[in-house]
Design a protein that fits this description.
InterPro entries: CO_DH_a-bundle, CODH, HCP/CODH, Prismane-like_a/b-sand, Prismane-like_sf. This is Carbon monoxide dehydrogenase. It catalyses: CO + 2 oxidized [2Fe-2S]-[ferredoxin] + H2O = 2 reduced [2Fe-2S]-[ferredoxin] + CO2 + 2 H(+). Keywords: 4Fe-4S, Iron, Iron-sulfur, Metal-binding, Nickel, Oxidoreductase. Its EC number is 1.2.7.4. This protein is of the alpha/beta class. The chain has four domains: about 5-45, no CATH class; about 80-240, Substrate Binding Domain Of Dnak, Chain:A, Domain 2 (Up-down Bundle); about 250-395, Rossmann fold; about 410-630, 3-Layer(aba) Sandwich (Rossmann fold), CATH 3.40.50. It has 24 helices and 15 strands. It has helices spanning about 10-15, 20-30, 35-40, 45-50, 80-115, 125-135, 145-160, 175-185, 190-200, 210-240, 270-280, 280-290, 300-310, 345-350, 380-395, 415-420, 435-440, 460-470, 480-490, 505-510, 525-540, 560-575, 590-600, 615-630, and strands at about 55, 60-65, 245-250, 260-265, 295-300, 335, 355-360, 370, 410, 445-450, 475-480, 515-520, 550-555, 575-580, 605-610. The strands form four sheets. Strands 12-11-10-13-14-15 form a six-stranded parallel β-sheet, sandwiched between helices. Helix 5 (about 80-115) packs antiparallel against helix 7 and helix 9 runs antiparallel to helix 10. The radius of gyration is 24 Å and the shape is globular. The chain starts with 10 loop residues before the first helix and ends with a helix. About 60% of the residues are buried. The mean pLDDT is about 95. Bound molecules: iron/sulfur cluster and Broken Fe4S4 cluster (MSK). Iron/sulfur cluster (SF4) binds near residues 59 and 74.
Length: about 625
Amino acid sequence: IDTSEIKKLDTRSVTICEATRQMLDKAQRDGVETAFDRAASMKPCPIGADSACCKHCSMGPCRLNSKDPYGKVGVCGADIDTIMSRNFARMVASGAAAHTDHGMSMLDLFREVVNGHIKEYGIKDVKKLMEVAQSVGIETDSREVSDIAMDLYNELEKTYTQIEGEIPFAKRVPPKTLETWRKQGIVPRGAMREIMELMHRTHMGVDQQYENITRQISRTALADGWGGSLVATEISDILFGTPSPVQVEVNMGVLKENMVNIIVHGHEPNLFESMLVSVNAPVLVEAAKAAGADGINLVGMCCSGAEMLVRHGIPHAGNFMSTEAVLVTGAVDAMCVDVQCIKQGLAKVADCYNTPLFTTNTRCHIEGAVHIDFNEHKPLDCTDEIVIKAISRFKNRTAAIEIPQIINKGVHGFSYEYINYMLGGSFRSGFTPLNENIINGRIRGVAGVVGCTNPRVRQDWVHVELVKELIKNDVLVLQTGCSQIALAKAGLTTPEAAVLAGPGLQEVCEAVGMPPVLGLGSCVDNSRILIAAAEMVKTGGLGESIADLPAAGAAPEWMSEKAISIGHYFVASGVYTVFGVTFPVVDGTRFQKLLFEELEEKGMGKWGFAVDPYEMARMMIAHIDKKRQQLGIDK
Ligand code: SF4
Ligand code: MSK
């Protein structure tokens, strides 16, 4: 493109990821535009950012004034609280739909594996199958694995299709938390019903009372967290294995100039698992060598990458805001994507470097990308073809190659099951060591720091500073999604990073040999944090509901609607959840007060907002201390 169109970007100010910065500099030299450039040149609409705009019907769009939120109403009479809560609701509906559709795809695959229609995948973790089946009341003693699996399929299908009753995994919710939900009328029935009802209620002229809308927001978000997302995690573990700690390499240096580099980016693990088989097929490895390569190098990005990082230790090239930058290396011989967080801008950047971009999921086509449909009944047809095309691109490479020589190491793969095993057994007190160490104060509390990166803030910086501050104050950090890649690049997911922790947390980490920052999986695996929280309640000593725990959550650089759904399912489950960047509400309104204060008074968690990572840490630690005090374990 015409380089004069690109305003010179100060690349140091937009990211702390050195590899991404190097590639953004190269992109500028090459005249290639990325989302960082577009973010710099496109100012967000201030009315939209505050969610003070409604376009739910053609009498509008109606724009209210966030400086005087109650000064006027929309043409239909909708006030600011109705408008904001409806907008918020639709973000939750969309985010929950993404996770639940992902979970349903996993469940479809599981059914076809169990009934023998798909032979390319199998049940890899029978122990997990048994545990999940038992958790929803399925008899497992002296029964065939396939019968138990089919019963589990039928039970979990209700997560989506049930029209009355409670979703199956409600059985895993601590009783007091569940009691709160029942009292509020927010126990999800089935995800399809909740999302449909939320879309209906936010149509023009239906639900126009923000508290009533918020009840359905909570119900829908919970159908995501304890429904679709948890099903996606559990079924993926059953089919592909439950993660356990593995040494990994992250950053763009994992690309190899003399190899055929293939990147998988998106979210669903089945495409990547099939690609793993394809890149190891002797005939394709031979073809790569015949083309002059040393072999085939498979690398992950974003959450597909996080899934494979924690399960198989597959190298990871970078998080969401590095997906365009990685193409600028010229070293990527194919990028294939499935669903979610895939920028349309990738197509143009890929084209500039002669890298083929492949879409594979019928839900996600991109103008300029080649679509090769991924059929789970013949998965290798798609992934083999992509490998062949990548080899051909390697042979005919035209772009100059420049790979930032940066590789960071970390230990990831801390599923809840492993955390339980690692900190397993019980003390004389009868509590698990995790609870015991929280009670005795070595660990002050637990924080989930998760979520995206966003070009509206300096990439990775807020994540890294927040996490450093938390561990320094003896808060154990659990991570998923793009956030854990930011911390891996900063070197904090190694056991050696324990020296950065406060004395109590450091002692625990050194005794167990674990990092102070535990990477759990992809963004759909935030469900692992819910389960960890539920187990902390179950094992005792830390109160009776999730809301009692000395715990907090944060998504400091969030950008997606999925993040809002995740944030709200944590809030509805009882967790204080702080978001950064921006928050889609107008200050001083009743809806904001409901989200930021009143939900907590109803026995749930609450939302918080701060841009500055140190302020965020202060808010989270203050909350953890408040909970410690309420539990009588403050010293
Ligand atoms: Fe305006 Fe009401 Fe229509 Fe929204 S629903 S665009 S507030 S008239
Ligand atoms: S990929 S939702 S940018 S975490 Fe899950 Fe990353 Fe956020 Fe997408």
